[in-house]
Design goal:
It is globular, with a radius of gyration of 29 Å. Strand 1, helix 3 and strand 2 form a beta-alpha-beta unit. The chain has 17 helices and 13 strands. It is 46% helix and 12% strand. The strands form 4 sheets. A 5-stranded mixed sheet has the order 2-1-3-12-6. A 4-stranded mixed sheet has the order 8-9-7-10. The protein has a two-stranded antiparallel sheet with strand order 4-5. Helix 16 packs antiparallel against helix 17. It folds into 2 domains: 175 residues, 3-Layer(aba) Sandwich (D-Maltodextrin-Binding Protein, domain 2), CATH 3.40.190; 201 residues, D-Maltodextrin-Binding Protein, domain 2.
């Protein structure tokens, strides 16, 4: 009987072998094709064995330049992310400023639709951290080679109690721009370019007095600066003071070395008439006055560099922010990449952040002037001459770069967006002379303490 059925069993076995060979051949052919495509692109494709791609949304405030630049970055990083079965895509949130963007982002999170990651203004970090709206990234930092980056950029408002909740998308510092031609005409030495031994604020006040001349549309002003609460911190700490707040957000502006800064501002604005006030900038802003050669000294952010590098009416220079010996420092402006607490793709989102920090991604963003100055040292070094511009000399470039190593955290609190306009209004009254220094600063302290206490 066995012999009778042997031909049948033999046929069945042969059929099974043929089917198996056919399947194997198909699989092998598919893998070979994918392998060839991977070799052509320079990226090893693992998605065929690891499963479908995980799509992760990056929420950004929609604007044509930002969307175009970020899409170029995604073209680069998605090729690498495919190895990890991740695909990044933009979630464009139309908004007129950071306030509506934050509101829409939190609405998405409340509805259970939080994106994988998002970019947010730094001033929202204290609010989002205090309300547990974002993810603690402290344990992830060990995956970054911090020697590649400007370390001060990672020490802003995203760090609370030793924990890190955001990664800088870019950075800006503050420097002291000055008109070399006006200094030469007045026979004055240039302000110090040494951050360890900067020109003091009182010395700058004397320079400003001597550099001020004329009246009306022909007036040349000696000194201009931003007046928000963010721009006061480097003056206070540079003067040896404790800064705007203590660790509990108690306002310290009446402390003697802090108060001295406002007294010098009052001297320049009210007595010497050398410092710009809010009336002086109604027709032409401070940056434009500087570009036109009508402002000798301008302490402001390095976001001005793209406009100032094309100055052709005079020779500009860059000096350290005013301060006492050993106290030179610069305000920092550090918008952040964050992972919302409600994100269900935290690991994949972190992989995307790392790719955005890569050299090629940062080069694209910096060349397109998106998100500020790159946080990577190598990318800035490659593009430094072009970014700073030929009108500035080697010493100017050195003080510019060093400003990024002198960053101090901005005095953000959860109440910042509400209290800053009121603080600025009081400082305006001081520089207009309608309030005494002591009255204006006392009002600032009350505003800060009251509004911060309400938020806490």
């Amino acid at each position: 009987m066995l012999k009778k059925f042997m031909p049948v069993w033999s046929m069945l076995i042969c059929l099974m072998v043929l089917v198996g060979c056919t399947n194997t051949g198909t699989s092998s052919s598919g893998n070979t094709s994918e392998s060839q495509e991977s070799s052509a692109s320079g990226v090893e494709n693992e998605s065929s064995t690891a499963g479908p791609l995980e799509t992760v949304q990056i929420a950004i405030s929609a604007s044509a330049p930002t969307v175009e630049g970020m899409n170029e970055v995604l073209d680069v990083i998605n090729a690498r992310l495919a190895e990890k079965n991740i695909q990044a895509e933009l979630l464009e949130i139309p908004s007129d400023g950071w306030v509506p963007f934050y509101q829409k982002l939190m609405a998405l999170q409340a509805a259970g639709n939080a994106p994988g990651l998002a970019q947010i203004a730094e001033f929202y970090m204290p609010v989002m951290i205090s309300k547990n709206q974002i993810t603690d990234l402290t344990d992830k930092l060990s995956e970054l080679n911090m020697e590649d980056y400007f370390d001060k950029a990672f020490q802003g408002a995203s760090v609370v109690d030793g924990k890190t909740y955001g990664i800088p998308s870019g950075q800006y510092s503050v420097v002291m721009y000055f008109n070399k031609d006006l200094f030469d005409a007045a026979g004055l030495a240039y302000p110090s370019q040494d951050w360890d031994n900067p020109t003091t604020l009182q010395e700058v006040a004397e320079m400003a007095r001597q550099l001020t001349s004329g009246s009306g549309a022909d007036k040349i002003y000696g000194f201009g600066t931003h007046t928000s609460i963010l721009h006061i911190e480097h003056y206070l700490k540079g003067n040896g003071g404790p800064g705007v707040y203590d660790e509990n957000y108690k306002c310290l502006l009446m402390e003697p070395l802090n108060l001295e800064v406002y007294q010098i501002f009052g001297q320049m604005a009210v007595q010497d008439k050398s410092m710009l006030n809010s009336n002086d900038t109604k027709v032409m802003g401070a940056a434009d006055l500087f570009k036109e050669g009508r402002l000798a000294i301008y302490v402001d952010g390095t976001w001005n560099q793209s406009a100032f590098r094309d100055i052709d009416k005079f020779t500009p220079g860059i000096a350290a922010v005013p301060g006492k010996a050993g106290k030179g420092c610069s305000a920092s402006f550090l918008d952040q990449w964050i992972i919302p607490a409600g994100s269900e793709q935290k690991d994949a989102a972190w992989q995307i952040i790392k790719e955005i920090l890569a050299e090629d991604s940062q080069t694209i963003l910096f060349d397109r002037s998106l998100f500020g100055i790159t946080v990577r040292q190598d990318v800035l070094e490659q593009s430094l001459d072009g970014f700073v511009g030929p009108k500035f000399d080697e010493a100017d470039r050195e003080v510019f770069v060093e400003s990024l190593n002198r960053l101090i955290p901005a005095p953000y609190t959860p109440a910042y967006s509400e209290l800053n306009p009121r603080y600025t209004a009081e400082l305006s009254q001081l520089t207009l002379g309608t309030l005494s220094v002591e009255e204006a600063v006392s009002n600032m302290v009350e505003i800060c303490d009251t509004m911060n206490a309400r938020e806490n």
